[in-house]
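Example protein as discussed:

>
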Amino acid sequence: MIFGERSGSRASMVAVAVLLALPAPVLAADDTQEDDGFSIEGSVRGRFERIDDEFRPGKLPDETIWSTRALVKAEYATGPVRFVGELLDARAYGVDPGSTVNTSTVNVLEPIQAYAQFDLGEVADGWKTSLQAGRFTMKYGSGRLVSRIGFSNVPTSFTGARIDLASEGGDQISLFWTMPQERRPGDAASIRDNDFKLDREGTDLQLFGANYQSKLDALGASLELYGYGLLEDDRPDNATRNRQLFTPGLRLLRNPKDGAFDFELEAAYQLGTIRTGKAATAAEQDVSAWMLHAEVGRTLGGPAGLRIAALFDAASGDSAGGDYTRFDSLFGARSSTFGPTANFGPLSFANIISPGLRVAAKPSKRIDGSLSVRLAWLQRETDSFAKTGVVDPLGDAGRFAGTQYEASLGYWIVPKSVRFGFGAAYLSKGRFLEEAANAPDTGDTRYILSDVTFSF
């Protein structure tokens, strides 16, 4: 059974009902819990982006993008039960044909959360347990495979259920089964016009899995083990490649601390099957893909709050014949690893080898910033590079994609209420991005971003 618009409408009605049922005094409340169990919080963000000498084929060579994002989240808690509804309104303005703007920027009046959470107490000996059901956002571990995306305008929602267990010793287990949200409308003309259409979810796309986290006191670190499954099937109005994927992985982490070294290592392997095309008659291939993130840093402390980190990221790419070997990062976020995404973001965990260096500073509670530089090569010279859409089927353009420089600055104009953000990136194109078969005839890509966020 495919749930389609009916299930999307039900989730929407629940969230809207939660918001509309709130009495007027609640809508004026701050983000603290009220005596009657109601609370409300939200934010409004306005953003400016400018891209010059676009790196993606078929897009405008230069573009200015204005966008807004509003979020309102309402909560009612009574005893062991909590009800949550969250409404998103994300729009872009002055968008021309050929723009990079897509459903990660535009999603009008969408209830992204509408769920109930139940505190079940100690179902197992020493393990506190909670159950969550409905539509919700979620993030596991680093968020590289499953995340509530915050840098771009539109986070991904999931409809289903999850069970979370926490032991007295700090171990955590999470089990979930969901139907990921399909953002609508998806056609370019409707996106340019900020048209409204409720998202949908159905059993034709399912994400499920388990996540386990444990403290390693001897190392002053933590260990995370996970496995995520993705099942994708055709439906009458949507042909797919029928991805049937399983992605097990691990993550070892020591958090930054003044005067000490920290580290992070994450690796995942992907197996399953995928069709060679979207046609129902397309041949099926076995999947064998991988990704790796490694980072070693040191926080120097002092008045500048400096941290310096060496980075290395890699993911497999595909080649003709044999297994399908291009890694699929599922519903992960890229900005914390590869810098600004939104309507930029050339780098991703697909067909890439990328060492880098990052320097971050936090001189006060109001100011933070970072500088980074990354080199990037293709793991397979005949596959599309990362998130660019640039490909050279004959492999004549080599493997060096280029160098990305990035800077960011954040400042709380009013602490916890008004925040200013600025970002800039420069992609110095290497031979591949200049000479590949479909590479646009543009120079090095320049990108700037500025936004202001009002929170309540």
Summary: The chain has five helices and 18 strands. The first strand starts at residue 38 and ends at 52. The radius of gyration is 22 Å. Residues 4-455 form a domain with the Porin fold (CATH 2.40.160.100).
